[in-house]
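Researcher: Batch entry, complex prediction.
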Amino acid sequence: MLSFIIRRLLLLPVTLLGLTFLIFLFMSALSPYALLSTYVNNPRQLQAPGAAQNLIKQYGLDKPFYVKYVSYLNQIIHGNLGWSQTMNETVVQVIKTRFPATLELALYSIIPIVIVGIWLGVVAAVHHNGLIDQILRVVALIGYSVPAFVLGLLLLFIFYGVLRWLPPGRLGLGFEMIYNSPAFHHYTGLVTIDALLNGRFWMFLDALKHLIDPVLTLSFLSWAGLLRITRSSMLEALGQDYVRTARAKGLSERVVINKHARRNALIPATTVAGLMFIGILGGVVITETIFNYPGIGSAMAQASEQLDYATVLGLSLLFGLITVVGNLVVDVAYALIDPRVRLG
Amino acid sequence: MKKILIIMMAVLLVGAFIGMAAGSVVNPNTLVEETIGPFDSMDPAWAYDTASGEVIWQLYENLVQYDGTSTVNLLPMLSTNVPSVADGTILDNGTTYVFHIRQGVYFHNGDILTPEDVVYSLERTVIFDRAGGPSWMLAGPLFPMIDGQYVSTIVQVVANELGLSNPLNYTSLSSLGIFATGTKNPLSDKYKQALINAFNLLAKDFEIKGNDVIIHLPQPYAPFLYILAHGANWSSILDKKWAADHNAWDGAADDWWYYHNPVESADPLRDIENGTGPYQLQYWIPGREMAFVRFDNYWGKPAPVKYAVIKYVNEFTTRLLDLLSGQADVIYVPIENLSEVENNPNVRVITKLPTLEVDNIYFTWNIASQGNSYIGSGKLDGNGIPPDFFSNLDVRKAFEYLFPYKQYIQQAWNGNAMQPNSCIIEGLLGYDPNIPMYQQDLAKATEYFKKAYNGELWQKGFKFTAVYNTGNTTRQLALQALSNYARQINPKFQINVVGELWSNFLNDYLAGKLPMYMMGWLADYPDPYDFADAYFASTGAYGSALGQNFIDFAQKNLDPLVNDLITNVVPSQRAAIAQKLSMLSYENALYIWTDQPYAYEVQRTWVKGWYYNAMRPGIDFYSLSK
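Model: Structure tokens for the complex:
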């Protein structure tokens, strides 16, 4: 297994190199004038004669593809991902400030996804073709079909527009000011954890309150998928010989389901849950935008809109890194859970 | 998606009526604005966008300020006087301005304002001169003219000092070839001296006498005071010592070029501030929000509300819900969503506020034809247009008569705009409501189309693409309307209306490929010259992009007037010049002036003290309470 992990980690730089190359290749299709749009929001900025050409020269927008690419790689080697024009700070700083928010959202979202998805999947399988199964299948279908922006807006409308319970953002105004004051120590960048570490329980609750809507949106969209996977693998497990044997031994149905069938059915579900977690970590653009949640998904959306290629590249690298490492972790976890799987 | 949103909004508004807590003020110690953005920089010499202007407005102050809602009358600010001829503080035919600097003014770090700070701040903007930035507005009045023209950058002055021919053609120091490769170290003493000389030409404009700053302009520059007024962030007053301590130039003549045209990440004042304004920065979360706290040592009366926050929230629904819940006091509402906030008892919608902004459709007189699919075949054969199609006066006049001005303002702007008769719009010196403007007249449009190209155009028809930048629905509607009416009067007239991403739009605009497109101009300062230069001058931001035929026309007919407009300091004469330019615009159908939009404001009814000024970039938190 160790050699498998090392091999996969060695592939990481190659994957990232390929990723940067592809994005650069797409970017090279754009003319210097098109790339200039990152720096010019209004033609009045070009009022001074030669302003366009000066900007093109200054930011090296007219340099050949390979020159820009080599220079970018050199930058990366030195830990510099460039300057984010949309966020007005370095891309590294964008990742530092935004990634913890997305990580927090992903962590809180994966809990209901796993618990509800697996639980309902097992329930549906146990009541195979019964009323509960049918209802859950319909609910799963809805979860699959409802776009994030519809569900997000609906939740925002109900829980904020009408009930005034769950506001958007990451913190309420007062707590936001405390959070950004020098007196508040940012240990992890996760608001809920930092609030507790700073001894601010009410801030912790406020942060939780702000997480409910986006977590609900994300989890409803994802647990439906997990429900379907769990249901089918559970059905498969329930038809296996060892389950029949367990029943023949006279074990109670609860023990048969929980100890024999569900444990085996969880293996594919665990893999899928891991991949879902990676997906959320990669940034959830729509959910973060609707709830004004300051994660990397909303940053990516803003940067793409403005053709801010330094940010797009930097965040793409981060996504690439998350995906490769995440998949590796899932593969290893899969091998650990299921002794039949041998990596190498 | 749009339909779903509209339905949801309707339901939401009903729900909001039911759920809204009526009277109690939310966050009484904090003013919250939610808008789109985000802003660019806190450095007054860098910023050239309204979002940055709004932030700088709260933090920094200028020598003078607008008098409330007026864009004409000025009041003292960091100067205790507004220079005028009457009191002898404008002298020498409008070339000398005397400012009595206010005493006892503190910067946010506790430093005291001095006349040296004033001189330093204005000089810094000029030497800073970032590409695409606002420095040209101070370079023009503060340097002597070269070859009878105002300069737009210190680079041109350096080129002139070096004795280069056509110095006005140089716009970047690197293009002068005076630095060692990859550095800003002058290659020789001669080059260094030219750089120093250029600065000295600027420095000699300023004289400090006791507590007065006296500015000697090399030549009259009529709108000079407006270029210095609050809202013009490029003229904000910085603390020289603080700026130098933060490596933002110490005011010396012999190294200014190291601080010239930096990239944004290298600008030391980008994310810090030290103004004299009524608020100081509390924190800044890039891309998300700015928070301000009242400055207790402010020289004026203290701000009524302790905290102010600007949040950048891109999603309209989120902004709306925050407004309805009271979490936001003021929000930005797109024009197409304005009806969704009207008639709410807790929300105040103020409309019909006059702006200093104009929108228009452009004719490119010489369209770049190489590989340009926007002009079809590139010939007058019914499948395209020739590259100089819009050089033809009859064609331009026909399009002027084709455009449905009233219908467009009613439908695209819901009546929140007025029809201008040129870029010298209402609110500017020289605006004359009696100057004729085109009205839709399909018979006349037909007449001019038939007249153009001796009837060949009418017989063969045309085909081209009109382009707008995506997301701008009013521009889309304007061009679509023109397209529909063109087809109505002659089915062979085909205008394909296409939306382009801003990047593609800018690319094609700069390449001169767009035959017809739509944009607008927002005043840098409330003077007709700001508009006339952009639209009418052969070197203007817009005029210069219309092709050689326009440039030739402008050099002969418009440039002398534009030049007069800036050198002449007699208001009545300047007004007459501006009117002449408007008339020329009408007679020569230079642009289709589609609208002068009204501004509008959406705020909670508990917000007090709000006023409108067309030159203010956003909100003045200092005036507000709740």
